[in-house]
Write a structure and sequence with these properties.
binds iron/sulfur cluster, 25 helices, binds flavin mononucleotide, 39% helix, Ubiquitin-like (UB roll), 18 strands, 604 residues, alpha/beta, Rossmann fold, Glutaredoxin
């Protein structure tokens, strides 16, 4: 089971099925699977009755298990109100189809998605080698590649597919492989690395793939190693992903037993082994050269480039690094046909992209969409903005990405077009914001993250991000005196210049892209910055430092609860009389507001 399912109670559902199945003496198989992406519908339970189509039930908490056993498993009755959809019946199967149940792929959240990387996720048992083989021809591509014995052709195929790295930079994958294949190694050793560091806040695309379809990453790595001429592969995965590590360890061990890893793979003469290295969770260790330093046992700090890892990587040897999502689709591209894959998408962005859709969106989860789809369409997949609010912006590309405003909501998912509007594809973090989100505070939030994650090696990033954070923090708080008023004005004048200095002079991608959220919000939401600066006003009413708590005397009944809960004795008032907040003493904890049962405390 995947992390999101477990967080929604899937373990309790699973355990209850097990114990109740024993009680009811049922002859059933209970198989844990990974994540289909619809986090808001977890825990999802699929039921496959003998001779019938597979049907998915949504939000099955443990209290619903007995009813499923009694009605569905014992009486073969489908509980309509819990149905999410059915899986298609294979043409070769004689299973009875439920004609009145819609396909799961027709469900609103899945309808406009294109599952390619995620096609096995939540469908197969991630611990089963047999299921990987049976579903979508697992290990067929590897067998064919080794049979053909033409590593250069594999690279040419990947070039033809137009695949670009999904880890952030979007570098053409085939070209990168070519550099590494052509590079001379001093001792003949080359390495391939799978970057499973995934440090963007709120991003969980790679985690889902590793937890739900680990064999696809293993197969992709073996093919990549063969094409490049590397006999060693390393998966660098953050230790905060224990389920991913568990599933990978299992998959590696099975592949070693079956002769797909180790010496003379499938009698081809090719040797390849994979090792997992656990990262300690620093965001900068996702940067390829910092990651290499970390594997070498050094402090995770980026190296100066060039030389690039393709010529001087791990232990000074040619090394190819790719992201989980890039690697997971290698075998699928070869099976599907590189030229056919290249037909999806627009411009130089081919194939699909997985996003973790979060923020102010009705249905948060993992979505896989064809390149070229617009942000508007992705918001629609997520069910739109909740509570009748309006779309305000989308932060795409993680903390180094940019905020795309409502008037650019039709921007397509395309590496170059996203750059054009000041954002970036990134690895797939997509945070949706509504009118209650303050853009100055959003820039401050991302800057705080970046500042804490800066490795400190170079001054522009180490000191510059600290100064940017100070300026943004000041803007979200009321100045205490005239000096602070002038200081805020001066800081605001230098904000943009400082952002560009960091962008242009920092050593690695973390620093180079750190100012993006500031620059895009400044560009598209300048009026909000001005309201904070000149009027001490947060138009979205989100910056607590610019707001005051006040008690509405008309509504207050004088119960005294707020006074009792205030940690700084900032509330005055007699029993049964309207109370009053002394602003100078208020520490803005909000306890008065959350404790008042009469909605008498106002934040304005
Ligand atoms: C600060 C920083 C963090 C990064 N984090 C990741 C990450 O978590 N996962 C990842 O695949 N790439 C990350 N990258 C990009 C990698 O440096 C590298 O470009 C990528 O792994 C290459 O794989 P790809 O070509 O398949 O995208 C990061 C880059 C920077 C600058
Ligand atoms: S830009 Fe930041 S993270 Fe990158 S090397 Fe410099 S200090 Fe470290
Ligand atoms: S909790 Fe509400 S009603 Fe009670 S004294 Fe405070 S403001 Fe008035």
């Amino acid at each position: 089971m995947g992390t999101c399912g477990l967080a929604s109670g899937a373990q309790a559902t699973f355990d209850t099925f097990r114990s109740e199945a024993l009680k009811y003496k049922l002859d059933i198989e209970i198989i844990p699977v990974g994540c289909v992406g619809s986090c808001f519908l977890e825990p999802i339970v699929d039921i496959k009755l003998p001779g019938k189509a597979r049907v998915a039930y949504k939000q099955i908490t443990s209290d619903k298990v007995v009813e499923i056993i009694q009605r569905t498993l014992q009486k073969e009755e489908i509980i309509r109100e819990w149905v999410l959809g059915k899986y298609p019946v294979e043409p070769s199967s004689s299973d009875e189809d439920f004609s009145d149940i819609p396909l799961i792929s027709d469900f609103e959240f899945f309808k406009n998605q294109k599952k390619f990387v995620l096609s096995r996720c939540g469908v197969v048992n991630p611990r089963s080698f047999e299921e990987y083989i049976a579903y979508e021809d697992g290990f067929k591509a590897l067998a064919e590649v080794l049979e053909e014995a033409n590593p250069q052709k594999v690279i040419d195929d990947i070039k033809t597919s137009g695949l670009r790295g999904r880890g952030g930079g979007g570098f053409p994958t085939g070209q990168k492989w070519q550099f590494c294949r052509d590079a001379q190694s001093p001792d003949g050793q080359k390495y391939v690395i799978c970057n499973a560091d995934e440090g963007d806040p709120g991003a969980f695309m790679d985690r889902a793939v590793l937890e739900s379809d680990p064999f696809s990453v293993i197969e992709g790595m073996i093919i990549m190693g063969y094409a490049i001429g590397a006999s060693k592969g390393i998966i660098y995965c953050r230790a905060e992903y224990p389920i991913a590590i568990k599933q990978l360890t299992n998959a590696i061990s099975i592949c070693s037993e079956r002769g797909l890893l180790g010496k003379n793979i499938l009698n081809s003469g090719f040797n390849f082994e994979i090792e997992i290295k656990k990262g300690a969770g620093a965001f900068v260790c996702g940067e390829e050269t910092a990651l290499i330093e970390s594997i070498e046992g050094k402090r995770g700090m980026p190296r100066i480039k060039p030389p690039y890892p393709a010529t001087y990587g791990l232990y000074g040897n040619p090394t190819n690094i790719n992201n989980v999502e890039t690697i997971a689709q290698i075998a699928k591209i070869l099976n599907y046909g590189p030229a056919k894959f290249a037909e999806w998408g627009i411009n130089k962005s081919r194939g699909t992209k997985v996003f973790s859709l979060t923020g102010k969106i009705k249905h948060a989860g993992l979505v896989e969409v064809p390149m070229g789809i617009t942000i508007r369409e992705i918001v629609k997949i997520g069910g739109g903005i909740p509570n009748g609010k309006k779309f305000k912006a989308a932060q795409i590309g993680g903390p180094s990405g940019g905020c795309i405003p409502a008037h650019l909501i039709n921007t397509p998912i395309d590496y170059e077009e996203l750059k054009e509007v000041g954002a970036m594809m990134g690895s797939g973090g997509l945070v949706i914001m509504d009118e209650s989100t303050c853009m100055v505070d959003t820039a401050r939030f991302f800057m705080k993250f970046i500042q804490e994650e800066s490795c400190g090696k170079c001054i522009p990033c180490r000191e510059g991000t600290r100064r940017l954070l100070e300026i943004l923090t000041k803007l979200t708080q009321k100045p205490k005196n005239d000096y602070e008023v002038v200081d805020r004005m001066k800081s605001m004048i230098s904000l943009k210049e400082l952002a560009y200095v960091i962008k242009d002079t920092a050593l690695c991608g973390l620093g180079n892209s750190a100012p993006n959220p500031v620059l895009t919000t400044l560009n598209y939401f300048r009026d909000e910055y001005e309201a904070h600066l000149y009027e001490n006003r947060c138009p979205a009413k989100a910056c607590i430092g610019l707001l005051s708590f006040r008690i509405d005397a008309e509504k207050c009944v004088g119960c005294g609860l707020c006074k009792l809960n205030c940690p700084n004795d900032a509330i005055l008032g007699e029993k049964k009389q309207a109370h009053y907040i002394v602003e100078e003493k208020c520490v803005k904890c909000g306890l008065c507001k959350s404790n008042c049962k009469f909605n008498a405390v106002i934040l304005e």
